[in-house]
Amino acid sequence: MTIFLAVTFGVLLVVLYRLFVTPRRAADWAAEHFVASAYGLPPREQLDPRRPGPPPPAHRTEERQAVADAAWEGDWRSAERYVQAAGDDWDERWARLELLQ
After folding, report:
1. What is the pLDDT of residue 77?
2. Taking the chain (101 residues) in consecutive chunks of 10 residues, what is each chunk's mean pLDDT?
3. Cβ–Cβ under 8 Å, residues 54 and 42
4. Nearest one of 75, 95, 72 to 85, comparing CA atoms
5. How far apart are CA 91 and CA 98, in angstroms?
6. 3 state SS of 73
7. What does the pLDDT read at residue 36?
8. 3-state DSSP call for residue 6?
9. What CA dihedral angle connects 37, 43, 49 and 51, to 10 degrees?
10. Under the phi-then-psi rule, with left for phi > 0, alpha for psi from -120 to 50, and beta for the rest, what region is 56?
11. Cα–Cα distance measured from residue 71 to residue 69, given in angstroms and rounded to the nearest whole number
């Protein structure tokens, strides 16, 4: 019976270690040593935490601002065309609708 309890306790310790200690170590390593630009990804400094990717180029920012200004002034047709231009790209459509909300 004592051997069974010792083995069960050992397995429990291994499971707890893998659940709680290992993920933190991996996250710490990634935060300190992983260089995203070495793998073709944009650096952390260029990322916008509100979007799931790098910031849009300047011409898209100006376009988005123009559509938002037109919608604010009551021109809903330009906003409709802007959303319809996304086509079947639902992620882009969602991003455009978030701009207009």
Report:
1. 93
2. 86 80 74 83 78 74 91 91 92 89 86
3. yes
4. 95
5. 11
6. coil
7. 80
8. helix
9. -60
10. beta
11. 5
